[in-house]
Automatic annotation (TrEMBL):
Annotated Cytochrome b561 domain residues: 60-256
Native organism: Penicillium bovifimosum
GO MF, any single term: transmembrane monodehydroascorbate reductase activity
SMART domains: B561
A GO CC annotation given for this chain: membrane
Subcellular location: Membrane
Cofactor(s) required, per the database record: heme b
Keywords in alphabetical order: Electron transport, Heme, Iron, Membrane, Metal-binding, Transmembrane, Transmembrane helix, Transport
Repeat keyword on record: no
Membrane disposition: Multi-pass membrane protein
Name of the protein: Cytochrome b561 domain-containing protein
Entry's transmembrane regions: 129-148, 168-194, 206-225, 231-252
InterPro entries: CYB561D1/2, Cyt_b561/ferric_Rdtase_TM
Pfam family, one: Cytochrom_B561
């Protein structure tokens, strides 16, 4: 109901009920609408504003929502890495971080495109796009691993926190990809039935989010390597800020029921 000033009147109870609402909305709030194009999953989400609550009678579903927070984070991270690496002379090591952060960028897109899907048609389309993006991502990750191994040569391998986390992350990435392929494309052949494949969906989702945390830790650890501290100078705080945005944006869209909770 509008007041004499033309501004809709909001009942005090409505505002009080929203005082403790998180700025990014409750986890899993965002769901792809039946008539919504799937590419919008890369940007949309519940991101409600106090100003909007005061000026309208219904909450805002912003076109620039939680996914945009994650997008900001991953593009900031990519920019930091690409700028830091390309500001130095090109050497054999150069493609390793460039390929790694590009793979991570694709991986975030793969998660964002699939998270809000709801109908069977949306889930099929989202899963296919998710699979293609993840396939490209894994290819880049493996290439980054091969390059750093060749670059290391006879020097000690996997001795720094970044090296140890990196190896653990690469193994986890390959295992995650294999489980995803088996559960969706080969459930009958490998697991015995389609239902058996569906039963491990929630574990695949859990491990995917844990893997994202591991990847962020690996990138943060990279800023503390001798080569970065002495030569590249990629900012620790810049990477931490980007990682926070990525985890906040992706985490806010987690649907508990899809995780078996």
């Amino acid at each position: 109901m509008a007041s004499a000033t033309g501004i809709p009147e909001i009942h005090p109870a409505t505002i009080e009920a929203r005082d403790d609402e998180p700025l990014l909305g409750r986890p899993g709030d965002v769901t792809q609408k039946p008539d919504e194009r799937i590419y919008r999953n890369l940007f949309t989400g519940e991101c409600e504003s106090v100003v909007t609550v005061l000026l309208t009678e219904s909450p805002l579903t912003s076109d620039l929502g939680t996914a945009s927070v994650a997008q900001a984070g991953i593009w900031i991270l990519a920019a930091l890495v690409w700028q830091g690496i390309l500001s130095q002379p090109l050497i054999l090591f150069t493609p390793h971080p460039l390929l790694g952060v590009s793979a991570l960028l694709l991986q975030v897109q793969a998660a964002l495109i699939l998270q809000p899907t709801a109908t069977p048609e949306q889930k099929r389309a989202g899963t296919r796009i998710h699979y293609i993006l993840q396939l490209l991502s894994v290819t880049l990750f493996v290439s980054a691993f091969v390059i750093i191994e060749v670059n290391k040569g006879s020097h000690p391998h996997f001795v720094s926190p970044h090296g140890i986390l990196g190896l653990t992350t690469y193994i986890a990435i390959v295992l995650q990809a294999l489980v995803g392929i088996i559960q969706y494309f080969l459930p009958v052949t490998v697991l015995g039935s389609i239902d058996a494949g569906k039963r491990i969906y929630k574990y695949h989702r859990w491990s995917g989010y844990v893997l994202l945390l591991l990847e962020m830790a690996t990138v943060v650890a990279a800023t503390q390597t001798t080569f970065n501290v002495n030569v590249i100078h990629i900012s620790l705080w810049g990477v931490l800020f980007a990682a926070f945005l990525i985890l906040a944006g992706v985490g806010a869209r987690i649907k508990k029921h899809k995780m078996g909770l």
